[in-house]
Amino acid sequence: MFQTYDDVADPTLGPDRAKKLQAELRTRGLDGFIIPRSDEHQGEYVPPHAERLRWLTGFSGSAGLAIVLLDKAAIFIDGRYTLQVRYQVDINVFEPQSLMDMPPAQWVEENLPRGAKLAYDPWLHTVEGVERLRKAAQKAGATLIAVENNLVDAVWSEQPEKPKAPIQPHPLKFAGEAATDKLKRITNQLQSCDANAAIITMPDSIAWLFNIRGGDVSHSPLPLSFAIVYEEGHAELFVDEDKIPKETRSHLGNVVTLLTPGDLGPTLDKLGTGKREIRIDPTTCATWIHDRLAKAGAVIKRGDDLCELPKARKNDAEVAGTRAAHIRDGQALSRFLAWLAREAPGGKVTEMSAAIQLEAFREETGALKEISFDTISGSGPNGAIVHYRVTTDTDRALGDGELFLVDSGAQYLDGTTDVTRTIAIGTPSQEMKDCFTRVLKGHISLASARFPKGTSGAQLDALARMALWQAGLDFDHGTGHGVGSYLSVHEGPQRISKTGHVPLDTGMIVSNEPGYYKTDAFGIRIENLLVVLPPAPIKGGEREMMGFETITLAPIDLSLVEASLLTADEKVWLNAYHARVTELVGPALSAAEKEWLEKATHTI
Question: What is the pTM of this model?
Fold first, then answer.
């Protein structure tokens, strides 16, 4: 099994750990410390030793931050975790704050005492993040101070060791482009922006660039490491040599020079001494790297990670691979849904047993390398917790008349999947059907969209919300995120959201996942992955328009669809989608499963 169900969040531990941290502050003559949910690479998934926020507060979400002062503390979370934070964290110690309504910088400005010294670990904050916090501290009449040794590490007595998972070559048939050719492309970009070198800090960018995959964090095949690409066309990879087996060393030999993590600092110093112009991404680069370069005398040029857009624009091999992965994954998911329809009535299935069974069906494909994130398996009121994670303590049966939301995904060598289905257990209420159908209408509207080149996700986001808005409803998460190719299930820079301003481009993969969540009652989400298609003519139109191909293949629960709310075109889309599911998924199913699938995808 690739996930566990132990309840690691214990809010009762937070008060004592906060007191230990405050004692450490007093010892060092400091007035506060900032604890982000991040590691040196600023990624969504972090290794166990870097789960400092989780250890301190109990909060297990994928994004968040805490600030501990001598007399108070706060934890900052986004809309996905509004409910979750209240049962994982002692809110009498760590006061919950919305990242949108009360950003950390604003809280610092309003709560930091005049003359105070607020400390931070420069490895765990981006350049832009520190700049915002420093301005806030200055407005409060206080000082932001970088510390060499993390204060949480000083009081975390049983902190795990850093990971050393082996790094493997990613086959060319899946990558679709040789690492030497990718490096040449990035070098050309570097030359065009008049920089001598670029620092690459994001492990997924490094994995893509050198066609390697690792296992240092859960669920994403990331090799934690740093890289420098030079305008002359060569590169250096800073990685623990214990993680490089012979086969990988041979694979990388013609592409990159291997150095140790300890070589990074002196190499940055050398770049600075030479007054070289160095490109960094201020939104992802640790401020430690920026400050080391600046102190050594380097000329720092800010810009996006040069690998991010090329990585997001999947090539033909990657698109073909993700199609194959989604057919395989759709077969496993359809088998699961058939099993659920048979076993769930009468309370025979729990949230945890459902998640275990779904992973088992994926394992039976023979191609599963990992799951792409912890399965969100929530029935009834638990489904209303957007990023709910079932544990042995929270596990509950799928009750009659309730909704069951299951959001899951898999990692295959040829692609990464992410899919959500909401299923009625027994007979749904009219309210459930109305809300579900409005979510479905938004899903169909986005999937069917045609748009000119240069359109961003922010311009499309409202399509997924309109039917909900008309009923006075909405959801507090983005409509869609980018997805990698046997990489991170959440990939930038593209996304469908109010803040998604990067233009969508051919080959990008994004999720389409509108939802609705009624606190303490039920949750609804319908998620498929989409591939952005190149511009094509529209009959009678004047301009070519881009569009989407839906690549996720699994039935949508028709018992939850209020057909009278659907337009004729929406019914056509739904029937056509289910016909594709039957055609591509059906052949791999057993006779009983095929019979179920035919009923589950009947024409409406």
Answer: 0.95
